[in-house]
């Protein structure tokens, strides 16, 4: 099934054949702190989580490592995998710039007896939730306000002013999707946000 939106094309794949663990989705505008939260949760052994590595058709940047940061595929390879129904979800973010979650990645983690945790954009997160409504806990990480979001992006010192402006311009549309998630974690204080996220995930995993 295919859906078209301005500047984007994405697909929801047929359901993967194996259903074992649970799926923990964290989505947010860039700068909200979701990656920090996900990294913290991955260090908690009692949660039994494994990070889902996304596939992309873009080239590696800087010190990014294939199989650790992303699975880097050529455009042809990515499209072949789409045609072969190998993705749980995928999206063309920009022209010929694809990102997606391979079914094999989720099944790899489930085969280890672990739960899958995603650090993923809001569109991908909601698609996974729609595909696996009972198995998925979809958490939206929200900054206290846009001014704080801008400050955090600038403090990173990793991106150009133009790139920061692009991320900030995209944030209102992303924030508007927050009510579609299972729960919203407001990251005004990192310590509180980490504890809140841990408690939410622990309770969900404990549910039968």
From TrEMBL:
Residues 21-202 form the Guanylate kinase-like domain. Pfam families: Guanylate_kin (PF00625). It is found in: Cytoplasm. Its EC number is 2.7.4.8. Its main location: cytoplasm. ATP binds at residues 28-35. Keywords: ATP-binding, Cytoplasm, Kinase, Nucleotide-binding, Transferase. The keyword Nucleotide-binding applies. GO terms for molecular function: ATP binding; GMP kinase activity. Essential for recycling GMP and indirectly, cGMP. This is Guanylate kinase. The lineage of its organism: Bacteria, Pseudomonadati, Bacteroidota, Flavobacteriia, Flavobacteriales.
